[in-house]
Design goal:
- By secondary structure, this protein is α/β, with parallel strands linked by helices.
- The chain has one domain: HprK N-terminal domain-like (Udp-n-acetylmuramoylalanyl-d-glutamate--2,6- Diaminopimelate Ligase, Chain: A, domain 1).
- Helices cover about 40% and strands about 15% of the residues.
- It is built from five helices and five strands, in the order αββαβαβαβα.
- The termini are close together.
- This is AraC family transcriptional regulator.
Length: about 110
């Protein structure tokens, strides 16, 4: 599944980044950054409630496909601007983590 599919078919909001054709190979959800760094993989869709600068560093370092912010959690414009500068794709959705996993799982992403 491409990142843009979440926007086009599932109503996710595009916050930052331009690489919407990027393929999502797996999905991970965790808010402990050291744990994400240890467990994250290339082309991951990372679901987190965190919205600070450090998530951008982790996503860039591990070359994640995107960061997904669930439950309509607000992201400050400063973070969105920094994500754009770094080329990090960020999406947001009103969905809860379980519902996001369901969409990705049904698309064959595990």
């Amino acid at each position: 599944m491409q990142v843009k599919t979440l926007i086009e078919n599932h109503g996710f909001s595009h916050l930052s980044g331009n690489d919407l054709d990027r393929e999502i190979s797996n999905v991970y959800s965790c808010d402990l950054l050291s744990w994400v760094m240890a467990k994250g993989k290339h082309d991951t869709a990372w679901i987190t409630v965190q919205t600070h600068n450090n998530i951008l560093a982790v996503a860039s370092l591990l070359e994640f496909a995107c960061i997904i912010i669930p439950e309509n959690i607000s992201v400050e414009q400063e973070i969105i601007d920094k994500a754009n500068e770094q080329g990090v794709v960020m999406l947001s959705t009103q969905l809860e983590v379980f519902e996001i996993f369901k969409i990705l799982y049904e698309a064959g992403i595990k």
